[in-house]
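During the reporting period the student researcher (J.K.) took over the structure-prediction task from the postdoctoral fellow and processed the backlog of single-chain submissions. One of the processed entries is reproduced below for the supervisory committee.
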Amino acid sequence: MLQIIPPLALTALTLQLTTTYEQRYQCYTKAVANGERIIRAATFSITIASIIRSYKRKSIELFFRNVVCCTNKLTEEEKKLAWNEQHAQGADTLTKTITSMQGFYVKAAQIVASRPDSIPQEYADALSVFTDDNDPLPVEVIKGVIEKELLDQRGEQFDDVFEEFDEAPLGSASIAQVHRAVLTKKYGHREVAVKVQRPSIEEKLMGDIANLKQVAKVFRGADLPVDYYAVFTELEEQLQDEFDFETEAASMERMHNILTTDENGAQRESPIVTPRSVPALVSKRVLVMDFLKGVPLSRASDMMKSKGIAPDGVEAKLFARKLLKSLTTAFGWSILESGFFHADAHPGNIFVLDDGRIGLIDFGQVKQVDRDYRETVAKVILALDERKSDDNDDDLHRIGNSTEGLNIDLKDDAPAHGHAAIAMWLFDGSVETFPDGYDENEMSPNSPVKAMKEFPSDLVLLARSTVLVKGLAKRFGVRWSLSQEWAPIARRVLNKGTDATAKGTVEQKGQCKPHRAKQQLKAWSEQKAKTVVTHLPPPMKKKALSAVLKHQQKRDAKKQKV
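J.K. obtained the following structure tokens:
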């Protein structure tokens, strides 16, 4: 009898007789999820394959037009236009696919778009749309998650906690959506941001990243500027914590302490603004935190245009330097002093606040490196900062020897100073000529990145932070050296624990209050000067800002000479 029953029906009958309804439902939902994952993987792979085929067709077309058809050869300008058109078509196809699929493919697009210096401009422009709002959920769904995940366990109604709740989201990303709200008097009657996790998103995103890893693995040996397989492997490990908002709240608090308290326990002014959670209103899938008034960096250019600020004007250049200084200091303190840092910085997470300060949000992805690793980074920084020139052989060997400690293995045919070139690429955007013919451009076959056998996992997220700053400096036309800015921090880190430093620490603690008073006076003076300049007539304001910019440029030039 059983022999005439089809295998699929036999399986179904066995499940019906041996399992409960709940177990059968779990099997069904798992099968659906697996089926969806296969469909999504196939869809994305087909898209990538079609884009690659279109490039091959374009190469063949240009070859025939330029070589076979000798009477009608293309000029260099015509070739460039042809490839620009091809990039635009490929970018459009990829963007449409990611828009329809959402999920972690949006996160991947954010990663790629945050590196406009490593991909064709057409792709950078097209993928930049994924840094802000993507596929927002209806507010009814968001409120339902808040009630289920936060309020029901507390025995409270929505109106008991929220006096106001904006229907339009502030942002909608691949994992969560954020709304502005005002708490009731019971909870301090304050303005807050409410981060709410998308329903059933964890399994979908983990499936997506597994798919992306497979695609990246296929192209791992290709001529790509970034080892995306290593990037997605590291992100897969880090992503687990991003679904737990209680962990994120703890990370926010820890980062606040790192930025506002130095190694000796003295208070200091944070270079950036980071939100803090409302401890009573945090659950695994809902996070209520400080509301930062401002716009994401991805929209800053539009804000400047609306205020009549020219992209190449004095105000824009001063803003660029302030942005770079704020991010550089924040990353320097967190990476070198504690080893705990924000691992997902991109223009959608960096904010330009209404008061001119720089904000950093979204601490779902953070990274912790151990003491030995951060001290190795500090040694690389000092070797770069103390070099006499970019081609001094002794300096290059010192830089290279320090960089080897970051577990970077070079290919067998890599030129001698490969480690030094990688260090310059990571930490010094002011380098004009790389050693041994290496090229700063990551699209070049001579890029230092191409010299590595593979990208070390510990370096993946650290590099995201350093190369982000480097990319921003390039975008704003500012020569910026992380090694130069981080050198004082690196020296403190490496000197900590020595007898001389211990003595200095005692002295410093005795001078703690005067030092803090000096910092407060400096901050007060800067704020007063800013207020005065803001209210000056336009001609005088322009002259004052130009004087400030020249002073900063002279100071930086003096540092580089030293």
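The committee noted the following: The longest strand covers residues 176-183.
J.K. will present the remaining backlog at the next meeting.
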